[in-house]
Amino acid sequence: MSTNEGPVLVTGATGTLGRPLVERLLADGVEVRVTSRRPRPESDDRPYHWVTCDFGTGRGLDAAVDGVAVIVHCATSMRHEVAYARRLVEAVRRSGGRPHLVYVSIVGIDTNPFPYYRAKLATERLVASSDLPWTILRATQFHDLVAAMTDAQRRLPVVLTPSGFWFQPVEVSEVAARLAELARGEPAGRVEDLGGPEMRTASELARTTMRAGGWRRPVVPLRLPGRAFRAFRRGANLAPDRAVGTVTYDQYLAGRAARARR
After folding, report:
1. How many angstroms separate the CA atoms of 237 and 239, rounded?
2. Where would I find the NAD(P)-binding domain in this sequence (predicted)?
3. Contact at 8 Å (CB) between 128 and 136?
4. pLDDT given at position 1
5. How far is CA 177 from CA 104, 148, 171, 201, 255, in A?
6. Band of residue 68 on the pLDDT scale cut at 50, 70, 90
7. Span 189-246, pLDDT tens digits
8. Strand ranges (DSSP E) for 172-215?
9. What residue spans define the domains of the chain?
């Protein structure tokens, strides 16, 4: 654990990554505090402390960070990524504590001018310059995100995919497990990237998603203009030397289908 004593705070605890991270920490016997914009559901009896707070306004953040030993920052925003992290750091400074701040980021953001990636890179720099002990983990795209790109087009006559794009999707529970490990350890700065076990084209992934869902559409690749999309075509979002994930995209889809049948 950290050199300080206290709970691990997980921001964005009800999100795609936050949920499995919280479950992993609880399974490991870690004292957990979570944040959410929503009040705690009455049916939720899991053994953690729930703090309702809003990163948009900062309301509730002081209570959330008070006395924590580690913060795993999973709360994210396409438009306000840097502002969220800045409010978090400011709340920590007001508290007088020095928790270990663990931030999850994205592979390739320093070579891709995609706006959200620029915001993630700026947030990495904010974390590193915060005067707090810190760790940053970059991961490739989650399986869920890759599947959603196709699922969102189910009602269309064709499925559009970005031409020349490759993805290296990773299972979110494996990212959560790595974050839990980092949260229990000492601050390590920028750690090695975490990539999925295989690289596949966007078109191939789209066809695989449709096949697993029992539907079919023509796949139409589109060549998208601009520097950000050129970076994707160069493979800036890939980590071939860090293909350490074990769950393949097909296995993810099979698991998703099995859960849907329950």
Report:
1. 7
2. 12-144
3. yes
4. 43
5. 12, 23, 10, 27, 18
6. very high
7. 999 999 999 999 999 999 999 999 999 999 999 999 999 999 999 999 999 999 999 9
8. 189-190, 200-201
9. 8-141+171-190
Angle at the Cα of 191 from the Cα atoms of 179 and 130, rounded to 5 degrees: 85
Q: How far apart are CA 17 and CA 74, in angstroms?
A: 7
Question: At which residue do the structure tokens 């096949």 appear?
Answer: 211
- Residues 59, 38: Cα–Cα separation, whole Å: 12
Coil, strand or helix: which one is 161? strand
| Beta partners for residue 73, in sequence order | 11, 103
Residue-averaged pLDDT of the chain: 95
Query: What predicted TM-score, i.e. pTM, was given to this entire model?
Result: 0.95
Indicate the SS3 state at residue 158.
coil
* Residue in 103, 87, 62 with CA at minimum distance from that of residue 187: 103
By the 8 A CB rule, do 92 and 132 touch? yes
Fold of 8-141+171-190: Rossmann fold (3.40.50)
Q: Which helix (H) or strand (E) holds 156?
A: none
Half-sphere exposure of 57 (CA within 13 A, CB side): 7
Cα angle: 202, vertex 208, 210; to 5 degrees = 105
